[in-house]
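Re: weekly structure request thread

Next one in the queue (412 aa):
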Amino acid sequence: MISFEKYTLSNGLTVILHTDNTSPLLALNLIYKVGSRNEQPERTGLAHLLEHVMFEGTNKIPHYNEALQGVGGENNAYTNTDITNYYLSVPSKYLETALMLEADRMTNLAFIPEKFNIQRDVVIEEFKQRYLTHPFNDISLLLKPLCYKKHPYRWNTIGMDIRHIAETSLDEAKVFYTTYYCPDNAILSLAGNLDIEQSKALIEKYFGNIPKGNIRPSVLPKEPLQKESRWLEVERDVPCDMLIIAFHGSKRSEKDYYPTQLISHLLSNGDSSILQENLTQKKKIFTHMETSLTETFDRGLFIINGIPANGISLQTAEEAVWTELEQLKNKGIKSKQLEKIKNKTLTLWYFSEINIQTKARLLGVFEAMDKAERIQKEEQLYQNVDKDNIKEVSRKLFRKTNSSTIYYKAKN
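Done, posted below.
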């Protein structure tokens, strides 16, 4: 179990401290509760673009990376639908340097036109490389707007359209920064070899005087319940066909998430999983299959994708998948299968608790999603799942009216 102390500064910054003296390092995560969900449909990709700009230095410290690397630190960041997370690790004696750098970035980001233009060009190139020039990489650009019609999850974190990035102005980025990059919209989590009282004093020193922002709760458009199946067929210059089927699932914070995650592992985790064993090994309908969950703060997606074997049509492949899903819905699983999948899933969870970087991240993410205390209940929530839960959630998920299917075809 991960123990921690949590408190809030007078300006609204949430702080989470976890001590792990087995490591000489300290991991720091600074999460801003802003992601692509907070963008407008006509200007997407702003949250991710600003993440890039955050590494271009401040009015006080023009070279963030040099300052951090000078004390042996490493850092990175990511943006997703729900949050933007800046994370780093340093030898524990340099905690003050890490806090000073992050507090400075929260208030003094330098918006220099030349540097902004460079990062905007970098993101445009990233869009091209990751989504437009490699085989299969545009699948998420197709799938999300097929599944979501109202909610901001309908566009990718990098943006809905490359033109949105190209047309973003420096002033727009400034407004986004001043709106969302404030202490009352942030969570600072530390894990590792730290002295609690010293850490509190340093956090107060560097973050305590930063003014509160003017954050108001975001009111997002609610995604209507899907009432009919959706289907899309595209042709691309790719070496083989691919089948993608997505279903609306639960929020990451909901009870149904835990059986849903176990169902995903049951279907595709390992050679003895249902889809791998039945459709790739025995029937040889697919050469490769996998399932995944988007794990978003609002209702996410359960995604199945597979590459049909030579001579197998996408229609035949889809029918085979539905046959396996109907079997799961109607017959359920055996106790031995469920126990095996629980053990696999919890092993991954236990392993994640070893790493201080992962612990700092999970504490911050859980707090952003709901509250950090949830992290102490994860094991039990998985253990509580029984065979009836698996059958019930399978029946909720795997309905034709809840499905969005893409036939991703190789050009002849």
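Residues 15 and 188 are 5 Å apart (CA to CA). DSSP finds 15 helices and eleven strands in the chain.
Next request, please.
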